[in-house]
Amino acid sequence: MRKGVGATPPRLSRWLFTLLLRGDGAETVWGDVEEGFQQRSGVRGSSYARRWYRRQALESVWALWTARLCRTSTNDVELRRPDSKGDGVMRTLLHNFRYALRGLRRAPGFAAVTIITLALGIGANTAVFCVLKSVVQAPLPYDEPEQLVRLYHRETADPDQHQFLSGPDILDIREEVDAFETVGIHYTYREIGQDLTTGGQPTRLRVLRIDAGYFPTYRATPLLGRVFRRTEERADTRRVVVSHQLWSTALGQNSDIVGTTVELDSEAYEVTGVMRATFRDMTTAEIAAWIPEDLERARDNNRGNHYLSAVARLGTGVSVTQAQAEVDTVMARIAQQFPESSADKLMRVVPLHGDVVGALHALSPC
Amino acid sequence: MGHNLGEFEQLLLFALLRLGHGASGTSVMEEIGHRTGRSVSAGAIYTGFDRLTSKGLVSSTFGPPSPKRGGKRRRLYSLEAAGAAALGRSYSAIGRMAQGMAARLRVFGG
Q: Which range has the worst mean pLDDT, A102-116, A162-176, A216-230?
């Protein structure tokens, strides 16, 4: 967080003030927001102050405009007609409706801007949410995607926790849970950046560290070569599987590329395979290459160090509940064997589709 | 004739009562935020005081421009006698309505 003098308010919000506000009110409000911004910038840092300024700009403009609109019809609001007949609720609704219409008629500029803004906002939101809906309903782009589950660490005291996994824990799960056909492990922090050097020119790549079960879990087979083996899950393995995109661009679509070497961060890596164009990595579609995660290190690692993620494929006919029960058994054994680090540990089995799109699904109105 | 005060108007008048003569919009905003936990916009403070000023419950003057306000003048608000009286009536009315209701309120989870 950057603190200090000299932070500047967001330009767009300032522009909003200059465009929409006039007169004494604008000077007072704008000045108050500027002053508040300077105070917060010094105490809470510039990024907090800028967020505060943006919210203030929107809320203040809204407050001033609605106040202006109401003022045009203040007298109308005060009118009372005690002799009017009809249902109280309907009368109030009609009264409010007429009041709003009169207000809009007396401030046609404001009315036009409001109506256009609302129309654009509603239209844009509907379009975005309808696209979201189609994304949400689409199955994940993998073979039998309903068999895929995500694994999360959680502590007994916090049922909603979705934490990453420790190396020893997930390796035990990989070895001991029969409900899983395969388990795919990857380094949690999604991807690392590495420079691919071709013809003396470096290209920055997004590289994901994975275990040998990663591609088999998604039932993704390579176009050329093969994927990693368990014996290659080591720090000194210099092997890489490249994406179809990387192969067909920077690597010249060389059909004899398997077994040759490419240079990543000035180290030679043997190209083990080329993935198909249809494979989309779950973490991000922009992964250009995959290298083995060092699971020997993970095996010896502290059970309190949570830095791995895992997706597993359920065996044929196995339900999430059955898999969860097996995982619980292994975790109970771990808790008993390593009480100091694992007494309150559990592992959650979550269907992958729901995990990926769950939050979006709740938002979609279409 | 007495003025009926809304809840936000009461908060504004109480803030002026606390801060004393010539309080700025910024300090009122901070005072309400600090004491009620509400995030209030500068625009809402201004329009609220504008309404109270037009009713004669609050008066305002301009202070000099200041660089930390982007060269803009500060508006300083003061509670008028009519404002204090209106606030007193509202507070008394609420107090009378609330009297002895704390236990019953707790029954409803309030």
A: A102-116
Q: Do A35 and B41 touch (CB under 8 A)?
A: no
Tell me the C-alpha distance between B11 and A251, whole Å: 68
A contacts of B74 (beta carbons < 8 Å) = 28, 31-32, 35
The verdict on a CB contact (< 8 Å) between A38 and B68 is yes
Give residue for tokens 């054994």.
A333
Concatenated DSSP letters for A164-220? -EEHHHHHHHHHH-TTEEEEEEEETT--EEEEEEETTEEEEEEEEEE-TTHHHHTT-
Q: How many CA atoms lie within 13 A of A181 on its CB side?
A: 18
Q: Structure pTM?
A: 0.51
Cα end-to-end distance, chain B, whole Å: 34
Which of A31, A39, A56 comes nearest B70 by C-beta? A31
Of B3, B49, B6, B74, nearest in space to A28 by CA: B74
pLDDT digits (tens, 9 = 90+) for B14-42: 999 999 999 999 999 999 999 999 889 99
Closest Cα in chain A, distance from residue B102 (Å): 32
* Bridge partners, B79 (sequence order): B58
Query: Is residue A247 within 8 Å of A230, Cβ to Cβ?
Result: no
Q: What CA dihedral angle connects A296, A302, A304 and A308, to 10 degrees?
A: -10
Which residues of chain B does A32 touch, with a Cβ-Cβ cutoff of 8 Å? Answer: 24-26, 29, 42, 45-46, 69, 74
Cβ within 8 Å, pair B24-A32:
yes
Are the Cβ atoms of B43 and A59 closer than 8 angstroms? yes
HSE-CB for A267 with a 13 A CA cutoff: 9
A15 touches chain B (CB under 8 A): no
CB of A228 closer than 8 Å to CB of A213 = no
Instruction: Provide the token pair at A68.
Output: 């202006």
> What ipTM was estimated for this complex?
0.83
Amino acid identity for residue A155 in this structure: E
